[in-house]
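Appendix C reproduces, verbatim, an entry submitted by the partner laboratory led by Prof. M.T., so that reviewers can inspect both the input and the predicted structure.
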Amino acid sequence: MTRPITAGVDGTEESLAALDWAAREAVRRGLPLRVVHAWRYAEALAAADRDTQHGWVTQGVENAVRSVMERHPGLAVTTDLVEGGAADALAEAAAGADMLVLGSRGHGRVVGFLLGSVGRQVIAEAVRPVVLVRAGDEPAAEAAGRDVVVGQQGGPEDSAAALRFAFETAAARGAGVRAVRAWTLPPVFAYSPGSLQLLDEAGGLEPYEKQALADAVRPWRERFPQVPVTEHVEMGSAGQVLLSAADRAQLMVVGRRAHRTAVGARIGSVAQGVLHHAGCPVAVVPHD
């Protein structure tokens, strides 16, 4: 089954930037584009009945789609207007998509993305990758020789989904991948005889981390031999190390394991930090 790239639109400048990003990515990957708009009947607009309000919404979406099709005449586009809550509609749309692309407000390069409750809920609950795009996203950055940067942590299986997404995206764009792994000195009590033996065999902590990254990236190097790869290991917090590479990225890819709490699902701290501070589009990929 061919999954479309799905864009959630609401008429805002940032959602139109996300629609443009999604359309370009759909063309690169040879996939159809699906445009989803969630709306509710506003009883407060007493002068407009349900049919009239639906007509306004339909016209706005059609105008946005018409602009995209003029720029990409061969692109297959479908539209869906869903009456109901935006978070539920978008999470459901993501389930059948190759990826879901959303717009997010951004205030300069100090704060990359301002996530409202809808964005947080969709990212935490989506079973497919979610890409956040800010208003003012520059398509030129995709052709400026910048890498797709991806965070790697744990063993090869822990970041497999994020690495796969990063390599697929880089291959579609003719770009390189910069795989980043952060490490910190663990407390002494965390060492076990088995871990100490592994560290001794690797020659120390940093060589051990470099080997762990190389092992995780190796199968994707083999699957995508045309994609140039840079492996970067640095001591520091994962969020800080990833953000240090953001200025050289056309896309940042981070993995996400949602944490369930009494008040619902929450995004991990690394993904949250990158979303709040990255100056480029960010893809949040749920773990397999």
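Residues 107-114 have pLDDT under 50 and may be disordered. Additional entries are available on request from the coordinating office.
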